[in-house]
Every structure is written in C-alpha cells, then in structure tokens.
Specification:
about 200 residues; mainly alpha; two-stranded antiparallel sheet; globular
C-alpha cells in the first residue's frame, strides 16, 4: 500500500517511518529544553557513552527508555543511508563541504564496532591511545607516516572503510571543514542538505 499508484500501491504513509520520525524529532527537541525528559535522555546517552543526541552513530543502543532507543536506531539508519548515497553519487570535482564534514568526522571506533570489525578494533586500540579518534585523523596519519610497521597498522584499520571515503577525507580543509562528529544537516530524498534544527517530520 505504500508504493506509488503505478506500482500497484495507494501511496499510504509508511506508519513505521512516521513513528520513527516523530520520536527522533521529539528526541532532538527535548535535548534543547528544560523538560524532565531531557534529563532522562542525558542518562540514556551517558549509558551508551555518547555526549550528544546528534552524533553520527551509536555503536551501543540504550534499553533504558523506548523513545531514546528508537531515536538512536533511527539516527544509525539515517547515517547509513546518507553514507550510501554520498558514495554512490561521489564526484571528486564537486563534493560538498557538508559531505566532507560528515565523512571526515566518523569516529573510527564507533564505525568499526557497528560493522563488527573485531580484528581491526584490536589493532585500532593502540592508535586510539595516541589520540587518533576520527576518520580524517587516521587518513592524515597514513598519508604522511614513514615507519613501515605503523603505516601497516594504519592501512589495516583503513581497510575496514569503503575506499571512496578516503578520497572525501583527503578533501578536508581545516579552514572550512570540521570533524566534530555532530550531525549538522540531514540529506533528504532529493539530495539536498537540510539543517538538523530546521528539518520537518515529513522530510525526516
């Protein structure tokens, strides 16, 4: 019933997607309020080791509160969709600043955990102790490393990421881009970036 008319459907609203969108909008809105739910959300975020509701991905999902749980799962779903679309439509000559921010700021550990790259997580731990946190940082290190053994470790960890990500991260400009791992914009179905605080439930 959700399909277009020409595909035999009735263009009925996807109730599951609507439910997720409403909960995520509430999750984002409550974060900026003084309501009691904001305190509950903070506890749920601390439980999974997150410092914000709008980080790119959650490798651990809370079980403490249902709206927080659905919202975190929805953010992971949106992030996966965004990354897929960015890589399919990747154009080295015309990559947007938002796409560079989005890719460069991926937290290496969160990405590896979500993708169940257990061996690479073990290798990455030593690099994490050195303060390498984001994908941009690990790409930068690999590009200029001269020690063969350390270079091998860096390249092994990078092998856990899609190859095109590296091209995007190499476009990082410190004067323009940032790698703070926050979702500042959402990518809509038409390929347009919408500010996180301005997105509507329908667009989400």
């Amino acid at each position: 019933m959700k399909n277009e008319y020409e595909h035999g459907g009735m263009k009925i609203t996807d109730v599951e997607c609507l439910d997720k969108s409403l909960k995520l909008r509430q999750f984002i809105r409550a974060n900026n309020s003084n309501h009691e739910i904001s305190q509950i959300q903070k506890v749920c975020l601390e439980e999974v080791g997150a410092d914000s509701v709008l980080i790119q991905e959650f490798s651990k999902i809370t079980d403490e509160e249902p709206i927080c749980k659905v919202s975190q799962e929805t953010i992971n779903c949106i992030t996966d969709y965004t990354r897929k679309v960015l890589m399919v439509n990747y154009d080295e000559t015309n990559v947007s600043s938002i796409a560079i921010n989005h890719t460069s700021s991926i937290k290496v550990e969160e990405f590896l955990k979500r993708n169940k790259k257990v061996f690479l997580i073990c290798i990455y731990r030593e690099l994490k102790r050195e303060g390498i946190i984001t994908y941009h940082e690990i790409v930068s290190e690999a590009e200029c490393e001269v020690d063969r053994n350390r270079k091998k470790k860096l390249e092994l960890v990078l092998s856990g990421f899609p190859e095109k990500y590296r091209n995007v991260a190499n476009s990082f400009d410190q004067n323009i881009n940032n790698d703070d791992n926050q979702i500042s914009h959402f990518l809509d179905a038409d390929g347009k970036w919408i500010r996180a605080e301005a997105i509507t439930t329908r667009e989400m």
